[in-house]
Amino acid sequence: MIQHRDGRGSTLLLVAANILIPIAIFIFATGFFPYKPLLPGLAQYETLSDYGAPPEPPFDKVVFMVIDALRSDFVYSTNSGFLFTQGLISNGDAIPFTAHATSPTVTMPRLKAITTGSIPSFLDVVLNLDEGDESSSLASQDTWLAQMKAKKSGKLVMYGDDTWLKLFPGTFDRQDGTTSFFVSDFTEVDNNVTRHIADELKRKDWNTMVLHYLGLDHIGHKGGPRSPHMIPKQREMDKIVQQIFTSLWSQPHHSKTLFVFCGDHGMNDAGNHGASSAGETSPALLFVSPKLQAVQTNAHAPLPENESFQFYSSVEQSDIAPTLAALLGFPIPKNNLGVLIPEFLSMWPKKEDQVQLLLRNAHQILDIITAAFGPEILDAANLTPENCAHPQTDYQELACEWQDILDAANHAIVADDDVWITRTIKWLRKAQSLMSGMASNYEVPRLFIGAGVALAAVILAITATSKSIPEPASSFVPFGGVVLSYGIMMFASSYVEEEQHFWYWATTAWFGLLGLKGFRSNSPSSMQGMGSITALVALRLIRGWNQTGQKFAGESDIVKRFITSNPSLLWFLVGCTYLWIHREIISSLASLPRSVRYSGATGLVLAGITFKVAFTNEEAPELVVGSARKLLDMDLARGASLVTRARTVFYGLGFGVAVAVGMAISAKRKRARFPSRKADNQGIAALHDLYTLLAMTQSRTSNIPLFLLFNIINQYIRASSKNLTLIDLSISSLLLQFTAFFAFGGSNAISSVDLSNAYNGIADFNAPVVGILTYISNWAGSIYWTFATVSWLLALSRSRKESRDNAGTGMAVWKGHVAVLTVFVASSVAAVMMACTALRTHLFIWTVFSPKYLYCVAWGLAQHLGVNLALGGLLFWLGM
Prior knowledge:
The protein is mostly helical. It contains 32 helices and eight strands.
């Protein structure tokens, strides 16, 4: 009776711990990612008594074109398809820059920076993924679009990425949005924009035309920056530039139209973005007009390749807003932290106009400074010579310098002083840097409450574990070492960036320990020793498969050195993996008629491999050689679309899952009727094999052979199971799930999220389906080990049942495993929260620790609660 109460009590503790984890995550997130306070209303021109009306703007219309993921070298380097654009640069009709896009480098926060001149919240990373979100709207904020609308000199039109329509509801008079997440579409998503351009260029009723092209970004996600589709897409975009420039040059009503085109962000070597690598933060930015020949930049193009992606002058993306304000004649948006790009000052020959433009920029930024620190920062009492000689803070130094600049402004006009111009721009840059680097307005009490709730979950989980696993405390020492060392590691940015090494070395050490444990068993064998060595060799290959992390992501690895450089080897390994899974599916469906399982498995596997060959042929046709090319040529479905091919695989897998679940339920009923009969685990094995085929479909082709290596380790653990305890199996599961995630190329950077397989079988954007496919694509290996763990635990449960071990009943084994995982997840969530709280003013809070928190959420909610507990629990129940 006491044991029953303890069992029920530990179950309640475990349930409570797993309920507290998402609660803690939510509370902490609302304090860590709040919306920043903004100055309300629309800016008006301030009266500067000594300088009169604002200078006359050289332009009155703007065509603003965003080419998503337009990395600087795509336009400026020798290996570029923008040949006409390069001619414009050399002729002086285009002024080129490399714009610095601060992290997070995803579309929504970048568009906010471009249009408001402010620094967006990191929360916009999450909002960027939600197609239906409207809370991120800029409708009530001051932007250069709102200022152009307020001028009432023409309509606003927009074509392209519908993120603009979410950000600016009701702003555009004519519009046609396209969804930004359907990355399989390289063509229609851009044609839908281009078809409007010719008609709009003939019209005279608009003053602002926004175009946002997505195809180049989609190509990057699917095939990377060196995809064979990349240069043709660049040439297509270059023709659009030519079409617009020709209209500006030839049509009288466009004589004062400014053409700006830029990237919202760049991309890394994998074609992704979201983090802070040089490629991701370096988009191109060009201002184009025949009138710009008055600005003598002496730029020429193309330029040699540059690994830093820095070409010409570098500016901040937020500088676009005040520069457009000057060039188009409207007040600088209120929340702007940008600086007027100094190259354009020569558009106003009079020195007083140049001085006035910089002073207006400075006054606007001073409004933000005083809103943040109070008007007393500019009080004369704080700006005495004594105080300014030894300023106590950066902001006091800034205020003292401002006073000197203001006093010298009139002299600069009279003396035609360029030194004052340089000094003022330097002051503006300093103010921009200080204000941009300010910590977010965290709701600190929520941070502490969230971390406190997570610690409560840790305590509950530890208590439940102690009640659920009747093993000596010494057996928990390795697990405790993993939990403690991982928690400590979360406080160091370098360790967070290179987290994969922790899991690689911890897993290697653990399997070495398991090998020693096997040798110390009562009946060690040479086969057992060979199995241990083979598993360690397989693990070493897994570790070296993909180089990941932040510092060495582009370094040589097995895929780069041996696989993609040798396509014949790639397809040999892929073929072996599909032959292996073909054999496994046939074996696990042994209860079906021979003809049915052979024909079903063969058809399903053929559909899978031909899809991957066709998919690779679209992404990287140079890799489809030899047997892969012959298979594609012999394919009976030749000519079928990738969507149709993927759906064929998914439908086949769906039917197979239904059969396997039926087998598992039938076996479960037989076990209930005949408890002494030997357990039948074929249904669970079939589900594992079918998932493996799904995971192969959702993985990059070069990663498919990893499943062969996973199988070697899985077989080793199964063969060693008689020497392993429940805590041993749970530790193995935990370590292998994380190792597999990083081995597939994952990291703690947003840019490592792989979207290349997120749209398999999808003809139109469907957020829930795309989300699930994206998760499977990125956690394919981790989910594999959840399935494998279920089979280990079922085997352990049955062996204990056969030995009449009351502590080894099915639910007791499962509850003990869940308790171990919950301790780690709750501890890791608490550690990440405490690290983010303690380091919230750290230089890398938004580039390292905030992305880590988002990944922590994914591991805690999706992998732990969704996969390990929900899916794993269902599988275990079916197999009991």
